[in-house]
Each structure stands twice: as structure tokens, then as C-alpha cells.
């Protein structure tokens, strides 16, 4: 219908085109302007026929293009604010004494967001207005311009003319607060409560003032009174929640959400958003576990068929240490899905992987691949499982399958990097290097590949200068990566730059949280090369304690003569 109106307006107002029947021998007598105006009014008010009204108005403008009543009516039914303002202004200027034209002109100015121009118009309107809303509009216009004293004067005038109106009283509170008159605003708020104690909004306004002056016990009492008046409404609870957030009272916020989560008219989208915000606070998760548990259960009970809710409940079980329950829950959910999504499988696979149950990971990955046979991540995961079982040929087959469906260079780079690792594990250095080089071709800034290839070069003692460049680039991409630092230290060691190697290795060890036996072993070798035998042996022993090969450590403790033998 909107499209039809636009077309008609364009045809009638822009082009001035009026289709006429050919072959009309006798024309009907032309209707008078008053008749046409009456027809337009009836079309709008009785028949709700905007198009009919526009047709009648066009006929009026053919006789008198400045007919004020038609211009004013047109301003009311026109959807475009700027056009409405144009017509309303023309009507008003044709008769500045007409109060109705003035009022419509004022509202058209508001609709067109011409707020500065609307102020003097509404100042005229309120001189004779019988509508408190006109005073409210003018007060808001003044308030928005930070002309709060003038806004208060308008509100005082409204009180004189209409008596106390709660809505205007709340506006007066805002103006008083802007002027720093907190006590006066509080008096106004208390007066509103006394006059209309049944209005929740009045108690909320008073609560906010108490909160502003840090009288929290009084603020809470007022919030509770408001909630009791409108306990089934969401907004009083949310006002109370905002107070709790500002005061950083986590327990209070959780308790409020306990109630709101039980309301079906509280949007699910908002419930999920609130849960996600709460769940990020790990400290309060354990402190208020009972409240979190209640929220998660309520969410699931009320929305059992929502996938995201099921994931939330599963995650809650997992985080709270109920990992088996979380796994069984997601397995059951997965079985119930006629058309499962990949995320449903991912949740189960992730938990099974966390348990180290590789056979189960393989099982659910295979099930997922039946539904999503071209999913690269699933194919890579299947390769990883085969890799862990030392089935390297099978692992390569899965990776090559993933390569078929890779559509981005980044994806291809990651797959070739994985192939390089597998080839290295099965002892084919030549293919390993080729795979790494292909990975870097697709993604030259793959830090892991740069590091791995540099380390392999260092082990063989070749391309050491190139290896150093590669690992330094990797560190540019990830400056505090202890694995990359260890590789750099080892390349420097191989280059005979022992003092530099020591410094880098010290930094790597300081960042290491895994207590790597390899780092300790490398550091011992570097210290040995510098002649620091006592500390070298200390770190070799640490490497042994952390799981390094015993024979390799014992060999380092042998006298040089025995090593030569």
C-alpha cells in the first residue's frame, strides 16, 4: 500500500497529471472546494482511505493551491516528515490566528527534528493549550537544550493550570537534578509518592535519588515497593538490576535474574545475554554457585528445545566439575536431533577429547562426517586421532581429504603444516620439509611452521642462518612464545653464539609454565659450552626429573674420554 501512495503522490503532486476519459461528451458538474474537503475528511476519518483523501485534495488544489484546511490535512497524512512540515507551515502562514494550524505546525517541526524552531512555536501553543502534554513537550525541548530553569517555569505554569500531574512531576525531578538541586528533587519525589503511592514509577524515582545520595538501604526499600506494585512487569526488576550493577552487588543481580528467568515474557535473547555476562565472572561462579545453578536449570526447564540453551546448560555442568553429566547430557541431546548441527557433535567431541578417549572421539567424528563429509575441521580431527595412534598413513589420508575441500590459502597452509608434522613423525624429513615449504607458500607468516622448520634445520646443523631468520620472524609474530625462544636459543647454540643463546634460553625458561624437559636439557648444553659445568649438570638433572631420556642425560655426565670411545 505504501508503494501505491508514493506513486500517487508523485503522479498528482510532481507531475500535475490527471488522467481523463476520452470520449466524454458531457462532464459532470465540478465539485466545490468545501464538498471535496468534506470528502477528504470522510476518507481519512471514516473509511481510512488515504489514497481517496489524496485524490480529493488534488482536486482541491486544482481550484486553490493554497487552501489552508487541505494543506493542514495533507500535513497530517503525509508520511515524509519534511513534506509534512512544508504543508503544515504553509497552512499556518495562511492563517496565523488558527490555533489548530499552529499546533499541527509545532508537531510537524518536532517530527522533522527541527527542535530549535519548535521552541517559540510551542511557547505560543501553551498560552492557550488545554493539553498538559503540550507543556511537557516544551519542558523537554528546554531540558534538551540545558535550559532547565525555563523548563521548570513551564512545569510550574502547568501545575497552576492543571494541578499536579505525576508525569510532569518526574520531569521536574530531572531538571532539578541537572541544576544540582538534589534535596529539592527528593522533596518532589517524596511528594509524588504521597500523592500516588500506587504508581511504581514514583517509588523508582525516589529510589534513584536515594541511590544518588548513597542511602542504599532506603533505595532498596523503594525498589522493593515498586516491584511489589508491578511484580509481573519486567521494567521494575530491571531498574533494580541496574542499581545492583552500579553498586557491583553480584549476589543481588543474580537474585533479580532468578526471578526474571522464570518470566516467559522476559525475552530468551536477553536471558542468554545475561547468562553470558554472568558466566565470564569466574570468581563469582564458585562463590555463588547455588544461584548460577538455579539460573542454568531454570533456563533449561523453560527452554528445553533451544540449542544454545542446551549448550549453556552443558557448559555449566562442565565448569562446575560435572564433566560426565555434561557429556551424557549432550549425547542425549545429540540423539534427539533429527538434523543435528555440527556444533552438537563438536560439544561431545570436545569433552571426549578432554577425557583423552580417542576411540570415542573417532566414533563421534565419523558420525559427524556422515552429515558433514566436507568439513575440514572434522577431517583434520580424524587425522589427529590416527596420528595419536601412530597410524601415520591413515592420518595423511585424512589430511589429503581435507585438502580437497580447502578453499582458502589459510586453510591450505594449516593442512600442509599438519602434513609436515606427520611426515616428521614417521621419519621422512624430505617430505616434511616440502610440506612445510608449501605451508609457508600459502601463509608465509605461519609462526609455528617457521619455528618447526628452523628447529629441524638446527638439529641437522644446516641452513642455520636461514633458520635464524625464520625463527626471528616467528618471534615477531609471537614475541613471548617460549617454544620459539627455545628454537632461537638452539639455533644460536649451533652457530656457536653461546652467550646470546644463554640469554635467550633464560628468557624462554622464565616464560615456561609446562616445566619442559627439553628446555632444561638445552639450557644445560648451552651452559656446558660456556664452561659453567656445575649449573649445566644442575639443569641436566632437572631435565631428567622432568622426563628426559635417561641414557641421553647419562651420556652428558660421562668424562670426555669416554664420550670419544
Topology:
Elements: H1 2-14, H2 33-45, H3 50-63, H4 68-77, H5 81-94, H6 99-111, H7 115-125, H8 132-144, H9 148-162, H10 166-178, H11 182-195, H12 200-212, H13 216-229, H14 234-246, H15 250-260, H16 268-279, H17 282-287, H18 289-302, H19 307-319, H20 323-336, H21 342-355, H22 358-371, H23 376-388, H24 392-405, H25 409-425, H26 429-442, H27 447-460, H28 464-477, H29 482-494, H30 498-511, H31 517-529, H32 533-545, H33 550-557, H34 560-564
What does this structure look like?
With 565 residues, the protein is an all-alpha fold. It has a domain of 102 residues: Tetratricopeptide repeat domain (Serine Threonine Protein Phosphatase 5, Tetratricopeptide repeat). Helices cover 77% and strands 0% of the residues. The N terminus is likely disordered.
Which CATH class of one domain applies here? Mainly Alpha
Number of strands: 0
**What is the CATH-assigned architecture of one domain?**
Alpha Horseshoe
The CATH homologous superfamily of one domain is termed Tetratricopeptide repeat domain
Binned, the helix content reads over 70%
CATH topology of one domain: Serine Threonine Protein Phosphatase 5, Tetratricopeptide repeat
Shape: elongated
What average pLDDT do the residues reach? 89
Query: What distance lies between the first and last C-alpha atoms, to the nearest angstrom?
Result: 99 Å
Oligomerization: single chain
Q: List segments where confidence is low: pLDDT < 50 over at least 5 consecutive residues.
A: 1-26
For the report, how would you describe the main beta sheet?
Answer: none
Strand composition percent: under 5%
Structural class: mainly alpha
Amino acid at each position: 500500500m505504501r508503494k501505491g501512495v508514493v506513486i500517487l503522490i508523485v503522479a498528482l503532486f510532481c507531475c500535475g497529471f490527471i488522467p481523463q476519459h476520452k470520449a466524454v461528451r458531457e462532464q459532470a458538474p465540478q465539485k466545490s472546494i468545501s464538498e471535496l474537503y468534506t470528502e477528504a475528511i470522510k476518507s481519512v476519518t471514516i473509511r481510512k482511505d488515504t489514497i481517496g483523501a489524496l485524490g480529493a485534495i488534488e482536486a482541491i488544489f486544482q481550484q486553490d493551491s493554497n487552501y489552508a484546511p487541505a494543506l493542514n490535512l495533507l500535513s497530517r497524512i503525509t508520511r515524509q516528515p519534511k513534506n509534512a512540515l512544508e504543508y503544515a507551515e504553509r497552512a499556518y502562514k495562511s492563517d496565523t490566528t488558527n490555533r489548530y494550524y499552529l499546533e499541527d505546525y509545532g508537531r510537524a517541526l518536532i517530527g522533522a527534528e527541527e527542535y530549535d524552531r519548535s521552541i517559540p512555536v510551542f511557547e505560543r501553543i501553551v498560552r492557550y493549550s488545554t493539553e498538559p502534554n503540550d507543556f511537557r513537550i516544551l519542558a523537554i525541548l528546554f531540558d534538551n537544550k540545558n535550559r532547565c530553569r525555563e523548563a521548570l517555569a513551564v512545569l510550574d505554569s502547568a501545575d497552576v493550570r492543571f494541578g499536579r500531574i505525576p508525569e510532569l512531576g518526574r520531569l521536574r525531578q530531572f531538571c532539578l537534578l541537572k541544576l544540582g538541586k538534589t534535596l529539592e528533587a527528593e522533596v518532589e519525589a517524596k511528594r509524588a509518592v504521597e500523592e500516588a503511592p500506587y504508581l511504581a514509577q514514583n517509588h523508582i524515582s525516589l529510589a534513584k535519588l536515594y541511590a544518588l545520595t548513597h542511602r542504599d538501604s532506603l533505595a532498596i526499600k523503594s525498589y522493593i515497593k515498586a516491584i511489589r506494585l508491578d511484580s509481573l512487569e519486567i521494567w521494575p526488576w530491571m531498574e533494580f538490576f541496574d542499581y545492583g550493577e552500579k553498586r557491583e552487588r553480584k549476589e543481588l543481580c543474580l537474585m533479580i535474574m532468578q526471578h526474571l528467568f522464570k518470566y516467559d515474557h522476559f525475552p530468551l535473547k536477553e536471558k542468554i545475554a545475561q547468562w553470558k555476562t554472568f558466566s565470564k565472572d569466574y570468581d563469582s561462579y564458585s562463590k555463588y554457585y547455588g544461584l548460577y545453578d538455579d539460573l542454568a536449570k531454570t533456563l533449561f526447564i523453560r527452554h528445553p528445545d533451544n540449542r544454545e540453551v542446551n549448550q549453556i546448560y552443558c557448559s555449566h555442568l562442565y565448569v562446575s566439575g560435572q564433566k560426565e553429566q555434561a557429556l551424557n547430557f549432550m549425547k542425549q541431546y545429540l540423539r534427539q536431533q533429527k538434523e543435528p548441527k555440527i556444533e552438537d557433535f563438536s560439544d561431545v567431541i570436545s569433552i571426549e577429547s578432554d577425557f583423552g578417549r580417542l576411540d570415542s572421539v573417532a566414533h563421534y567424528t565419523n558420525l559427524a562426517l556422515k552429515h558433514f563429509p566436507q568439513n575440514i575441521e572434522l577431517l583434520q580431527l580424524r587425522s589427529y586421532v590416527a596420528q595419536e595412534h601412530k597410524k601415520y598413513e591413515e592420518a595423511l589420508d585424512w589430511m589429503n581429504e581435507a585438502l580437497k575441500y580447502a578453499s582458502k590459502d589459510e586453510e591450505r597452509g594449516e593442512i600442509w603444516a599438519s602434513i609436515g608434522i606427520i611426515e616428521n613423525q614417521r621419519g621422512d624429513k624430505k617430505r616434511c620439509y616440502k610440506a612445510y615449504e608449501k605451508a609457508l607458500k600459502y601463509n608465509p607468516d605461519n609462526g609455528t611452521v617457521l619455528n618447526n622448520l628452523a628447529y629441524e634445520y638446527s638439529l641437522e646443523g644446516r641452513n642455520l642462518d636461514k633458520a635464524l631468520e625464520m625463527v626471528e620472524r616467528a618471534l615477531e609474530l609471537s614475541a613471548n612464545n617460549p617454544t620459539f625462544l627455545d628454537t632461537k636459543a638452539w639455533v644460536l647454540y649451533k652457530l656457536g653464539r653461546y652467550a646470546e643463546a644463554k640469554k635467550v634460553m633464560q628468557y624462554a625458561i622464565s616464560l615456561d609454565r609446562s616445566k619442559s624437559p627439553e628446555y632444561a636439557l638445552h639450557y644445560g648444553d648451552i651452559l656446558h659450552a660456556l664452561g659453567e659445568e656445575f649449573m649445566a649438570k644442575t639443569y641436566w638433572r632437572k631435565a631428567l626429573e622432568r622426563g628426559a631420556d635417561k641414557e641421553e642425560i647419562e651420556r652428558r655426565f660421562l668424562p670426555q674420554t669416554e664420550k670419544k670411545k
